[in-house]
Amino acid sequence: MKEPQLVAECCLAMRKAAQIPVTIKTRLGVDDLDTYEFAKEFITITSKYADLNHYIMHARKAYLKVSYSSGKLSVDSVIIGSKS
To answer: How many domains does the chain have?
Structure first.
């Protein structure tokens, strides 16, 4: 989602190779990129470049900024209800 042009290129390649519809399943945002404008830009780029018209949006965002300590996965920081 951080690279909508790359996603669009992948989807276009899949559309050319497959005889079935290609859809995008994504989240509302990723890490700090979670604004309406960011999601709209992602959909605009991927829909125009790859000629897609079906999206499945999870009603939450992805956290990719994670760290591993003691063999356990932990999110660096999760702020609920506010932004810093």
So the answer is: 1
In a domain, 80, yes or no: no
Distance of alpha carbon 50 from alpha carbon 7, whole angstroms: 9
The predicted structure's pLDDT at residue 1: 83
Task: Tell me, yes or no, whether 84 lies in a domain.
Answer: no
pLDDT for 70: 53
Q: Which positions ≥6 away from 39 have C-beta within 8 Å?
A: 28, 29, 57
Q: For residue 70, give its domain range.
A: 4-75
Radius of gyration of the chain (CA): 15
pTM tops 0.70, yes or no: no
How far is Cα of residue 69 from the mean position of the Cα atoms in its chain? 26
